[in-house]
Write a structure and sequence with these properties.
Aminopeptidase; about 475 residues; 2 domains; 8-stranded mixed sheet; alpha/beta; 5-stranded mixed sheet; Alpha-Beta Plaits
Length: about 475
């Protein structure tokens, strides 16, 4: 029924080089579950044990070996592997032909959780694969092949080893998902918004929708992101843009205010997400909670999705080659993404950070931003006395101080961009209020984004009906 959606492993592809980006959806949500876990009642012991038990773990230590790229910074790199396994609950999507890697995505979270980028490695990229071993212990020699052959050769461990070898980027964890997992997570989010420029009636995918906006779930959502022939002009570029916009809508939904604050909905989301993934043995619920500290304040507008720069592979028009030096420049930028630096030295005020009492107030619509900034101030030695929400939403960040805290406010203002200290009778004596406004870009000492702009990038905050 879906046989025209997925070619067999290694067979010529007639749909272009960038396929299978639907798995980015599951990848973001798998990490997103860590974000909403912090500070919720789900840490209760019984619930914790159940969620931890939902996750399937694999030990890939032996496959990765000892000669791995060094960890150069505090960024987080999670490899997302989309499986086209078609047994069990996935049997209705086609004949079972073993488990193959439908898509390979690297999610890179900049230090401090300010930005994230999802990098797609097209499955039909011709690359030099490293030597790997199968689950049965058989050695598979390396050599020129499609990148998704790495998963067939040695599973997730081999794919992690391949990405590290090709990019020089240290991969911290992997997350593997399948068709059924995609549907469960989208449903747990309450569906995702899409926008159709015209009516679609596709008998192959059984997708029948009118023009305009729709909230899609389950098989409808899966059919939408997998469809090749019933939407747009039939080109691969058109299909990829559609899938990227879908992913952006998922990120926006998962990070929006109120989406996962209801305890019942929150538990349903976690239960679906944890049942939907296989990870390395070290990516536990505890580890996800640690990751969440740096991701809480991230908004959809800080998330982008790109594909490794590519061009034609001369020997075979159905395959592609990575375009150089653009691809290597992208990898180098990710490796050295040291966004958070030490605080700039004080030039005007001489009050040491430990003597500056700060109350951080979130005046933006970004959930968790005040907590994240408070954690960063604490790490720099400042005394954070409170975290809260501002009753107003200022367009510019404010530094307000109570009686006797003028020098402390001056010291804080040196690392709070654009904020001029101002006395306020409403602020507690000896305390400085840092009110984060709409212009907030981070504490001074943060370098400009190291990752270069990439043609065709999709921002998660884009409207789903925005024209390409």
């Amino acid at each position: 029924m879906f046989s025209d959606y997925d070619s067999e492993y290694g067979a010529p592809l007639d749909h272009g080089p960038k396929r299978g980006l639907l798995w980015r959806v599951l990848g973001w949500v798998a990490i997103g579950l860590a974000v909403v876990l912090v500070g919720t009642s789900l840490v209760a012991y019984g619930t914790y044990r159940k969620l931890q038990g939902n996750i399937t773990h694999e030990d890939v230590t032996a496959e990765l070996g000892s000669h791995r790229p060094p960890k150069l910074n505090q960024a987080l790199n999670v490899l997302l592997i989309g499986s086209d396994q078609r047994n069990g609950a996935n049997a209705k999507y086609g004949k079972a032909v073993g488990e193959r890697s439908d898509t390979i995505i690297l999610l890179h979270f900049s230090p401090g959780g300010k930005k994230a980028i999802g990098i797609s490695f097209p499955r039909d990229s011709m690359v030099q694969l490293p030597q790997c071993k199968t689950a049965a212990g058989k050695t598979i020699p390396g050599g020129l092949n499609m990148i998704n052959a790495s998963f067939n050769n040695g599973g997730a461990g081999c794919t992690m080893h391949t990405i590290e070898t090709l990019t020089g980027i240290r991969v911290d964890h992997f997350v593997k998902v399948d068709f059924s997992g995609f549907k469960r997570v989208v449903d747990a989010l309450g569906g995702v918004e899409i926008c159709l420029p015209q009516r679609v009636d596709d008998t192959d995918s059984k997708l029948h929708l009118s023009a305009g906006r729709h909230i899609v779930k389950g098989d409808t959502a899966l059919a939408y992101v997998r469809n090749r022939h019933g939407l747009g002009d039939g080109s691969d570029t058109d299909r990829i843009k559609r899938q990227q916009k879908f992913l952006g809508a998922v990120v926006k939904k998962a990070t929006s205010n109120g989406t996962l604050t209801n305890p019942g909905k929150l538990y349903s989301f976690f239960d679906a997400a944890t049942k939907s993934v296989t990870t390395d043995k070290d990516f536990t619920i505890d580890e996800m909670k640690k990751v969440a500290g740096s991701l809480q304040g991230m908004s959809a507008g800080k998330v982008q999705f790109v594909t490794v720069p590519w061009g034609a592979y001369a020997p075979d028009p159905n395959r592609i080659a990575w375009r150089q030096p653009d691809a290597n420049n992208l990898f180098a930028a990710v490796r050295s993404d040291n966004r958070i630096q030490a605080a700039a030295p004080a030039k005007k005020a001489t009050v040491p950070p430990a003597q500056v009492k700060v109350h951080v107030l979130n005046g933006t619509s970004t959930p968790g931003l005040a907590q994240r900034v408070g954690d960063q101030l604490t790490a720099r030695g400042y005394t954070v006395v409170g975290i809260g929400t501002s009753p107003t939403k200022p367009s510019q960040t404010q530094v307000r101080f109570g009686t006797g805290a003028d020098q402390q406010a001056a010291a804080l203002a040196q690392i709070a961009p654009g904020a001029a200290p101002a006395a306020s009778t409403s602020v507690t004596a000896g305390v400085v209020d840092l009110v984060l406004g709409a212009d907030w870009e981070g504490l001074k000492g943060t370098q400009p984004a190291a990752i270069p702009k990439t043609s065709g990038a999709v921002n998660a905050a884009d409207d789903v009906c925005k024209s390409q």
